[in-house]
Amino acid sequence: MDELDQLIARADASEHTDPVTGIANRARATLELERTVELAERHRRPLSAVRIDVVMGASDAGGRDELLQSVARHLAVALRLPDLPARWTENGFLILLPETVLAGARVVAARLCATAELTGSAIGAASLERRRGEDAAAFAERLDAAGD
What we know:
By secondary structure, the protein is an alpha+beta fold. It is 50% helix and 20% strand. The longest helix has 18 residues, at 26-43.
């Protein structure tokens, strides 16, 4: 790979990577959401997602980036290979769970919440399953509403 190819590859990676956490950013998550919704619809397979919001206390203000990095590292190792953790909002994450029904998403959310409590951080989680016929934009809208 020559120098130009390496520069292009780095630019592409940074375009889809959150600079604070090092995991997928919202742009990449949106692309993956569109792709996985299309596949789930075509093959009539389940698709769920977990929306996680990190609860920041007054004492966390200075260590916000460190807290988000800690949660991102945990997500990266706690999930299955096909699952996609991504930074979705300022203090929130989205986990796409292909081939997962709502009950499975709730188990993942509960497990992540329990582990977060052990590390001293508090998170809130909402689990959603894509409805048959629901497009990526509508599913993303429900995911955004789940964090409110």
